[in-house]
Amino acid sequence: MNVCIVKTLAGNRLEKFLPTVFSETWKYGRIVIERENGKRAVLGRVQQRLLNLFFGIFLARLLSPSDYGLVGMLTIFTLIAGSLQESGFISAITNRRDVTSNDYNAVFWFSILVSVSVYVLLFFCAPLIARFYDEPRLIPLSRFIFLCFVLSSTATAHSAYLFRNLMVKKRTIAQLSALAVSGTVGVTAAYNGLAYWGIALQSVTYVLVSSMCYWLLTPWRPSFHIDFRPLREMFGFSSRVLATNIFVHINNNIFSVLLGRLFSAVQVGYYTQAAKWNMMGYNTVNGMIVGVAQPVLSQVAGDKARQLAVFRKMLRFTAFVSFPLMLGLAFIARELIVVCVTGKWLASVPMMQILCVWGAFVPVQGLFSNLVISSGKSHIYMWNTIILCLLQIVVLVSMSPYGIENMIVAFVAVNMAWLGVWYLFVRQQLDLRFLDLLRDVLPFALIALATMAATYYITRGISDIYLLLAAKVVTAAVIYMAMMWVCRAKVLRESIEFLRRRSVRHDR
């Protein structure tokens, strides 16, 4: 779960451009990041990723690809049900000028009502889901995992309260506590031979603990005075968020559905592992962007010229970080997988390498879509997401006879081509010429590719896999930074100066 810290402003203190990139929930309307809370949010996200990585490595070592695949088949159902349960009301509450206890109460009872209804439906549909995948083990597993969104519904309003009131520290405490407890439960269960039930227990425990923490850390409490009238005022806004979130989840998990239907749980598991490392990579880039964007955005005025200048600066920084990191991740994929999660996951390496190519462009797409959203055109983002989702389904089904890797290649190709669609909408908002776009992005991609090629030839004689992994990382980092220095890349000097100023302020 990602922590996004936003604050609605009714007055004139408004940033018209918000190039922050979040992996889960998109915010619409007039929002600005509160600086101090933004720092806490970034730190919290880093801590969460480290905990996820720590427990994820242990689980991957203990469990089989089939175990991960079984749970992966159910992910899309859980996420869509969770979106229905939340129904976009957290975002809607965040963007309301005035919020009363009755508003939170309406969201609380609506969330519980929807989640229980959806759970009952999915409970009886479990045999159909198992039949769809031809996997009988999914019947009890799905009925247990689907408890997640029922449990989370009890804290939807509390989460919205913390979110709106910028209680970042409390949200971080809740999420880190849930990660630590659930990770321990999951690893313990897997170690004792419970197989895929270890992942299921981890998921349910996380939701249970985080929901309990939200209750303990939030002063607001629900009442039995049930009045759904406040929801009518929020429905127009929340419905767009809901529709968008559903199709985002479909986009992100369509592979698990198709692979589970057309191939096997083992193949789903390999893909899940590959996608996990890819996601961790580009989410790391996103975290870096958020941290650097805050001081830059504080200087932005409302005119188009300054918006364009800031956008291009953020675009250059994104490319500067994203391409070497994601292409480097693809470059070290084999060594990383073997060292971290053992050779039984080697089949996921080619998938991971292909996905990392698209992963290098994900933050760029995030900048494009955030600019569109910040201009008040959330409907464009929604319809773009829906159309892309439908296109991907058609393409992936068409490519399924040609194997999993070709399906992933097609997925990457479609998404990269769709960047052109995003660019057209960006061009409507800002006078960003295509040639300037290439100038801001292409040099970093080419230098990153040259870096990996040089590193390959330098390190190809190393046979020890641990030494090879370390040598590739260090050599690539040194070569890339050296080439940036030789080319006198302005973004490198700006980044060094930014870090130097932060260090000076910290020392003071």
Question: What structural class should be given to the helix and strand makeup?
Answer: mainly alpha
Return the average pLDDT rounded to an integer: 80
- Count of helical segments? 20
Topology pattern, helix = H, strand = E: EEHHHHHHHHHHHHHHHHHHHH
Give a quick account of the main beta sheet: strands, pairing sense, barrel closure.
Answer: 2 strands, antiparallel
What would the principal axes of the Cα set say about the shape? globular
What do you see in this structure?
The protein has 20 helices and two strands. The chain has helices at 35-62, 65-86, 89-94, 101-133, 138-145, 147-153, 156-164, 168-191, 196-217, 229-262, 265-297, 304-331, 333-341, 349-359, 362-374, 378-399, 404-429, 434-459, 465-486, 490-507; strands at 7-8, 31-32. The longest helix is centred in the middle third of the chain and has 34 residues, at 229-262. Mean pLDDT is 80; it is low at 1-36. It has 508 residues and is an all-alpha fold. The two termini are 34 Å apart. Helix 12 (304-331) runs antiparallel to helix 14. Strands 1-2 form a two-stranded antiparallel ribbon. The relative contact order is 0.11. The chain is globular, with a radius of gyration of 23 Å.
